[in-house]
Write the structure tokens for this entry.
Amino acid sequence: MRTVTSRHSPASRAFKTAVTPSARARLTLALAGGKAAGTAARVLRAGGGTSFPGIVARRIDPRVLAKAAAASDARKVIVTGSNGKTTTCRMLAALAQADGLRVTQNRSGSNLLQGVTSAAVAQADLRGRMDAQMLLLEVDEATVRRVAPELRPDALLVTNIFRDQLDRFGELYSMARKLEAVIETLPAPAAAVLNADDPLVASLAPGAPARRLYFGIRDDAAGGRVPEHSADTIRCVRCQHMLSYRAVHLSHLGDYECPECGIARPDLDVAVSAVRPSGTGSEITVETPAGTYELRVPLPGMHNVYNAAAALAGEIALDLPRPLEPARARRAMAGVRPAFGRLEEIRAGDRQVVLAFVKNPTSYNTTLREVLRRPGRKHVLAAHSNTVVDGEDFAWLWDVEIEQLVPQLASLVISGTRAEEVALRFKYAGADPALTRVLPARPAALEGALSGTLPGEPLYIFAGYTPMRELRAIMQRRGWVRPSWEE
């Protein structure tokens, strides 16, 4: 197993000697309580212990995460952004493990404060020590400002900023200001890993003391020239003039410049210089300060090319004593499998289900394009709800390119707490009423949608966060899938 020297070792040693006996006892009690809560949740089948342990532990000791992080010599990495967090973390974990590192992460995707705390509680012993060399945490964009001061990350990676849950996050610039405030607190030894192809992300905190590492796609042949109609950041962040693009790879992500004030995409530290579609994924060439990597991304779509570039940039940002060997990196990336709900292939008895988590125009449109590339007419279950975690504002649904799907529809079931509103969107897109059923209850919707398919005909499920978890729980009870926390 590889030995890694941590920059925070002195702080860790100081923590171990400076904490008072009463504070140490409170930490031990919090960790014990959190671990017991996790065990109880799993035994009682009340979940996988991905959030409840953190709630219990923080109730006993609100600084349990900060103390456990300070007690650990592990490199700490936070991955945040609108889309791609879970997959980027899986890719980064695979690369780090291929490099010989022991990795602890919130693999289930529970990325609010209680979920992040639960991951630390599960892996720490009763003195707060973790047997890991990397603590890798996916963190919700609005939660980063609370997690970063406790974790003191060695690297903060921002994947992108898209319009997402406006009632919770606010508009794009509001979200950017919150992330910028976090980056400005990072010390000089830490690294801010930023998507240079996103004009808003690339502009974050230019005067921050942290090192900056930019990633993006340099293969102009792989993109178009005009942003999608639902693209978000299409104006210069400095003067608000319309941006000019040499290449657009996804929504508003690409090689841009402002013809008015001259602001342009920063130079790329980690650059995807070639993208070659290959089967259900892509072969990519990535140029980095550590050398050139030829990687196979086994997941479809340009969004996963960005995820792979982000993961490799995150690995390089840690400035490990020995660069990751290209051959190991290739094997690690080739072995990555989709996170649950990310075009997840599920065997449902004699039927096939493809489960897709969609939460904003960019994620929905990207997923639709991948589905439309597959042969045959499409049986679809669209399930959306307006819970707090899903977002209450459904105006974004009108920026989803449902019109592209309608000609290929074989059957359509619509479900969720906003089923009637989603049905209206499909109606305006031209969906045939004779093919459409509205079944708000998730069990009835899944049963009804499957009954309309034949063996060998996949059912495509487009679902927001809560309906996805509800539908997957039904499939779990039927033995079709494992619990998400075991994926």
